[in-house]
């Protein structure tokens, strides 16, 4: 039978939590969103190791906060706890499709909680306006310019295609070209990219194996080179290699076409994850909304939109279209990537709108305080690369991947 245990805060208010006899105390804490370092736990008055101990059915437990902040109030406000502490006049409606929540800094300097519920049609309008506002507010498109859109053939680029064509009258006028690299795509993704281009009327350039091989001066086809990196060099470097080759192929194609702006389908969580990662590893991420890559400006027009919001958008427009294939093997990244995404998702759960604050804060750091890494053009593949920490710009004439290719004897 579940047992009731007491949580006491520093104001000595008491809240009742439920625990299963035999479960780890740690599990009880995590399930109730109580950070393990914020509390000590007593069994019959004596402090116990909350990581080791399982709940005894007949003992009395008391969880005590070690710090005086209002955790129960906060957890109630964000609905991580369902208590009466935060009731209030929040909007509810029967036809709700999605509720947008924000818990953001107010003008007074503290946090304000807001939420708005949308039905299906309102939601589509809302998210399209979010997209339009995101492009305008950050000046991502200059009227009359040429933009190259990199399409993977997946859900994200499909959504970006819909956004761009459905909101076109509300955006600055621009010339859109699309590019798809077949080398790292499944045939199904390529044919999907082709049918999208046709549907939206965007000219599509396909980059094939032979071109990628030529970009890198490879002695072998790119897939062979990639498999050598994986099996003869370092398996964990293979996903980075794919990304690098994609970026190079897209950048070279843009330059060949005389285009100086490339749009990527990075969404809110992708940008957040890049920022978090940059802080963990101490290597700056070049901007929350756009970044300069040598002669090219990369922009992320999907920055205000989360993956779930994008999924709901497609689902609202075309319920049957929304099928994503299983990821191909090289898309499965390392554990570090999973952890960074989980941190970002968790952050948005406990603090809705955290991403927007992170973007603004990070952009301020980039504009005013961060020293961005020196960029150079690789002498082999001609891609713009950032010179890593600990090495001077003069030491590097080729990018990291080309160093590896050279080591493996793969260059002509
Ligand atoms: Zn290179």
Write up what this structure looks like.
The chain is of the alpha/beta class and 412 residues long. The protein has two domains: 3-77, Beta-grasp domain (Ubiquitin-like (UB roll), Roll); 122-369, HUPs (Rossmann fold), CATH 3.40.50.620. The protein contains 13 helices and 15 strands. The chain has helices at residues 25-31, 71-77, 120-137, 155-166, 187-200, 209-216, 222-233, 238-256, 268-281, 307-317, 335-350, 354-368, 400-407; strands at 3-8, 14-19, 39-43, 46-48, 61-65, 98-105, 111-118, 146-150, 175-181, 204-207, 261-263, 290-293, 296-299, 375-377, 384-386. Strands 10-9-8-11-13-12 form a six-stranded mixed β-sheet, with helices on both faces. Helix 4 (155-166) links the parallel strand 8 (146-150) and strand 9. The longest helix is centred in the middle third of the chain and has 19 residues, at 238-256. The radius of gyration is 25 Å and the shape is globular. The termini are far apart. The mean pLDDT is 88. Zinc ion binds at residues 378, 380-381, 383, 398-399, 401-402.
Please report the first level of CATH classification, the CATH class of the largest domain: Alpha Beta
Round the Cα radius of gyration to an integer and report it: 25 Å
Low-confidence stretches: none
Q: In the CATH scheme, what's the topology name of the largest domain?
A: Rossmann fold
- Overall pLDDT confidence: 88
Ligand types: zinc ion
CATH superfamily of the largest domain: HUPs
């Amino acid at each position: 039978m579940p047992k009731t245990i007491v949580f006491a805060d520093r104001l000595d208010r008491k809240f009742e939590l439920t625990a299963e006899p035999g479960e780890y105390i740690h599990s009880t804490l995590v399930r109730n969103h109580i950070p393990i370092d914020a509390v000590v736990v007593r069994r019959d008055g004596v402090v116990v190791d909350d990581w080791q101990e399982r709940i005894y059915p007949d003992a009395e437990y008391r969880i005590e906060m070690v710090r005086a902040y209002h955790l129960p109030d906060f957890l109630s406000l964000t609905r991580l706890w369902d208590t009466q502490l935060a009731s209030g006049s929040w909007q509810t409606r029967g036809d709700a499709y999605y509720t947008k929540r924000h818990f953001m800094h107010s003008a007074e300097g503290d946090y304000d909680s807001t939420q708005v519920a949308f039905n299906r049609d309102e939601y589509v309008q809302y998210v399209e306006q979010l997209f339009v506002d995101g492009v305008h507010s950050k000046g991502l498109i200059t009227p009359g310019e040429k933009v190259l859109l990199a399409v993977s053939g997946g859900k994200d680029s499909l959504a970006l295609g819909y956004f761009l064509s459905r909101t076109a009258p509300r955006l600055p006028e621009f010339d859109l070209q699309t590019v798809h690299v077949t080398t790292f795509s499944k045939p199904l993704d390529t044919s999907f990219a082709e049918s999208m281009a046709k549907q939206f009327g965007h000219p599509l350039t396909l980059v094939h194996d032979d071109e990628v091989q030529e970009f890198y001066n490879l002695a072998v086809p790119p897939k062979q080179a990639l498999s050598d990196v994986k099996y003869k060099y370092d398996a964990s470097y293979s996903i980075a290699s794919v990304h690098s080759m994609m970026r190079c192929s897209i950048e070279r194609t843009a330059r060949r076409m005389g285009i100086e702006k490339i749009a990527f389908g990075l969404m809110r969580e992708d940008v957040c994850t890049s920022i978090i990662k940059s802080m963990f590893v101490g290597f700056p991420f070049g901007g929350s909304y756009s970044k300069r890559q040598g002669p090219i400006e990369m922009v992320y027009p999907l920055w205000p939109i989360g993956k779930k919001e994008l999924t709901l958008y497609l689902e609202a427009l075309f319920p049957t279209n929304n099928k994503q294939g299983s990821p191909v093997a090289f898309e499965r990244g390392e554990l570090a990537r999973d952890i960074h995404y989980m941190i970002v998702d968790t952050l948005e759960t406990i603090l809705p709108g955290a991403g927007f604050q992170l973007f603004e804060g990070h952009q301020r750091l980039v504009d005013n305080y961060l020293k961005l890494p020196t960029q150079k053009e690789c002498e082999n593949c001609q891609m713009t690369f950032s010179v890593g920490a600990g090495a001077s710009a003069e030491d590097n004439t080729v990018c990291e991947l080309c160093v590896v290719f050279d080591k493996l004897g793969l260059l002509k």
